[in-house]
Amino acid sequence: MPSRLIRCLFVAMLIFAFTSVSRAVIPTRKFDVHANITKVTLADDAEQKKGVLATIEVEHRDKPIVVTKETNLHQQKGKLVPEAKVSDLKKGQKVSLWIKDKSDQAEAVLIFP
Question: Which of 18, 37, 41, 61 has its CA at a distance of 20 to 30 angstroms from the CA of residue 3?
Fold first, then answer.
Protein backbone atom coordinates (compact mmCIF):
# COMPACT_ATOMS: atom_id res chain seq x y z
CA MET A 1 0.00 0.00 0.00
CA PRO A 2 2.70 2.60 0.84
CA SER A 3 4.50 1.89 -2.45
CA ARG A 4 1.27 2.52 -4.37
CA LEU A 5 0.85 5.84 -2.55
CA ILE A 6 4.42 6.82 -3.37
CA ARG A 7 3.89 5.95 -7.05
CA CYS A 8 0.69 8.00 -7.16
CA LEU A 9 2.42 11.00 -5.56
CA PHE A 10 5.34 10.66 -7.97
CA VAL A 11 3.02 10.58 -11.00
CA ALA A 12 1.08 13.57 -9.65
CA MET A 13 4.33 15.53 -9.19
CA LEU A 14 5.40 14.72 -12.76
CA ILE A 15 2.07 15.81 -14.18
CA PHE A 16 2.20 19.04 -12.19
CA ALA A 17 5.80 19.71 -13.23
CA PHE A 18 5.17 19.30 -16.94
CA THR A 19 1.85 21.14 -17.08
CA SER A 20 3.00 24.13 -15.06
CA VAL A 21 6.10 24.83 -17.16
CA SER A 22 5.66 28.06 -19.06
CA ARG A 23 7.31 27.72 -22.46
CA ALA A 24 7.84 30.62 -24.78
CA VAL A 25 5.75 30.12 -27.89
CA ILE A 26 5.26 31.70 -31.25
CA PRO A 27 1.83 33.37 -31.63
CA THR A 28 -0.78 31.44 -33.58
CA ARG A 29 -1.77 34.42 -35.71
CA LYS A 30 -0.01 35.29 -38.99
CA PHE A 31 3.29 37.16 -38.68
CA ASP A 32 3.33 40.93 -39.10
CA VAL A 33 6.64 41.17 -40.99
CA HIS A 34 8.58 38.59 -43.04
CA ALA A 35 11.86 40.03 -44.34
CA ASN A 36 15.66 39.95 -44.22
CA ILE A 37 17.53 41.65 -41.38
CA THR A 38 19.49 44.66 -42.62
CA LYS A 39 21.03 45.72 -39.28
CA VAL A 40 21.36 44.36 -35.73
CA THR A 41 22.29 46.72 -32.89
CA LEU A 42 22.88 45.17 -29.48
CA ALA A 43 21.62 47.16 -26.51
CA ASP A 44 23.99 49.17 -24.35
CA ASP A 45 24.01 48.94 -20.53
CA ALA A 46 21.35 51.62 -20.04
CA GLU A 47 18.98 49.90 -22.49
CA GLN A 48 19.63 46.48 -20.95
CA LYS A 49 18.52 47.83 -17.56
CA LYS A 50 15.19 48.69 -19.23
CA GLY A 51 14.90 45.13 -20.60
CA VAL A 52 15.99 45.86 -24.18
CA LEU A 53 18.32 43.25 -25.72
CA ALA A 54 18.71 44.52 -29.29
CA THR A 55 17.22 46.60 -32.05
CA ILE A 56 16.86 45.13 -35.53
CA GLU A 57 16.10 46.76 -38.86
CA VAL A 58 14.49 44.77 -41.67
CA GLU A 59 13.77 45.32 -45.35
CA HIS A 60 10.59 47.17 -46.32
CA ARG A 61 10.10 48.70 -42.85
CA ASP A 62 11.12 52.22 -41.90
CA LYS A 63 11.11 51.84 -38.12
CA PRO A 64 13.50 49.57 -36.21
CA ILE A 65 12.04 46.75 -34.11
CA VAL A 66 13.00 46.40 -30.45
CA VAL A 67 13.80 42.93 -29.06
CA THR A 68 13.32 42.73 -25.28
CA LYS A 69 13.60 40.11 -22.55
CA GLU A 70 9.89 39.41 -23.10
CA THR A 71 10.38 38.66 -26.82
CA ASN A 72 10.10 34.97 -27.73
CA LEU A 73 13.08 34.12 -29.92
CA HIS A 74 13.05 30.90 -31.93
CA GLN A 75 15.19 29.47 -34.71
CA GLN A 76 13.78 27.06 -37.26
CA LYS A 77 15.87 23.93 -37.72
CA GLY A 78 13.93 21.64 -40.03
CA LYS A 79 10.74 20.66 -38.23
CA LEU A 80 12.21 21.67 -34.87
CA VAL A 81 11.88 25.24 -33.61
CA PRO A 82 14.08 25.56 -30.52
CA GLU A 83 14.51 28.76 -28.54
CA ALA A 84 17.21 31.09 -29.83
CA LYS A 85 19.47 33.78 -28.39
CA VAL A 86 19.95 37.39 -29.40
CA SER A 87 23.39 36.44 -30.70
CA ASP A 88 21.60 34.26 -33.30
CA LEU A 89 20.23 37.41 -35.00
CA LYS A 90 22.53 38.22 -37.94
CA LYS A 91 22.44 40.62 -40.87
CA GLY A 92 20.98 39.00 -44.00
CA GLN A 93 18.90 36.38 -42.17
CA LYS A 94 15.25 35.97 -43.05
CA VAL A 95 12.93 36.40 -40.06
CA SER A 96 9.25 36.44 -39.30
CA LEU A 97 8.23 39.02 -36.72
CA TRP A 98 5.15 39.35 -34.56
CA ILE A 99 4.89 42.92 -33.27
CA LYS A 100 3.01 43.98 -30.16
CA ASP A 101 -0.02 46.16 -30.83
CA LYS A 102 0.69 49.83 -31.49
CA SER A 103 4.41 49.60 -30.72
CA ASP A 104 7.72 48.75 -32.33
CA GLN A 105 8.44 45.99 -29.82
CA ALA A 106 8.71 42.41 -31.06
CA GLU A 107 6.44 39.89 -29.38
CA ALA A 108 8.16 36.98 -31.16
CA VAL A 109 10.92 36.43 -33.71
CA LEU A 110 11.34 33.30 -35.84
CA ILE A 111 14.78 33.05 -37.46
CA PHE A 112 15.14 31.02 -40.66
CA PRO A 113 18.36 29.24 -41.69
Answer: 18
The H-or-E segment that residue 97 falls in is strand 94-99
Q: What is the DSSP letter of 86?
A: G
Residue ranges of domains in the chain, CATH in brackets: 27-111 (2.40.50)
Query: Do the beta carbons of residue 99 and residue 33 sit within 8 Å?
Result: yes
Element (DSSP H or E) covering residue 83:
none
Average pLDDT (34-41) is 97
Distance CA 54, CA 88 (A): 11
DSSP state of 77: B
pTM confidence score: 0.75
